[in-house]
Amino acid sequence: PPDLSYEPAALNEEGLKWLRALGQPLVEKLQIGDVNALFRVPAGWEAVSDPRSSGSGLVVPNPAAGANGGK
Questions:
Q1: Rounded to 5, what percent of the chain is helix, strand, coil?
Q2: What are phi and psi of 5, to 5 degrees?
Q3: Pairing of strands 36-41, 4-6
Q4: Measured between alpha carbons, how far is residue 2 from residues 23, 27, 43 in Å?
Q5: Contacts of 56 (CB under 8 A, 6+ apart)
Q6: Helices (H), strands (E): how many in the chain?
Q7: Backbone dihedral angles phi then psi of residue 26, each to the nearest 5 degrees
Q8: For each successive 10 residues of the chain (71 residues), what is the average pLDDT?
Q9: Whether the Cβ atoms of residue 27 and residue 4 lie closer than 8 Å to each other
Q10: Whole-angstrom distance, CA of residue 49 vs CA of residue 51
């Protein structure tokens, strides 16, 4: 790519030196993305929010799904 954008904690100094030695232009960005996700776990669902930003994950049980959480 013309420029490689990276978050400050994503690459160590050794990695940055290696990319620069290859001639890769680097652009440090505070935050490139934000991820929120749901995971299926044995007990039902688990929600997580990206720790790099504000927010939270919450799973609200659906009473219509019954005792097994819609499995």
A1: 15, 25, 60
A2: -90, 140
A3: unpaired
A4: 10, 10, 46
A5: 49
A6: 1, 4
A7: -115, 140
A8: 87 94 93 85 88 78 64 55
A9: yes
A10: 6
CB 3 within 8 A of CB 21: no
User: In what helix (H) or strand (E) does residue 19 lie, and over which residues does it extend?
Assistant: helix 13-21
Helix (H), strand (E) at residue 15: helix 13-21
Structure tokens at 25: 């232009």
Report the amino acid identity of residue 36.
Answer: N
Give CA separation, 1 vs 19, 23, 37, 38, 47, in Å.
12, 11, 28, 32, 34
Predicted structure pTM score: 0.50
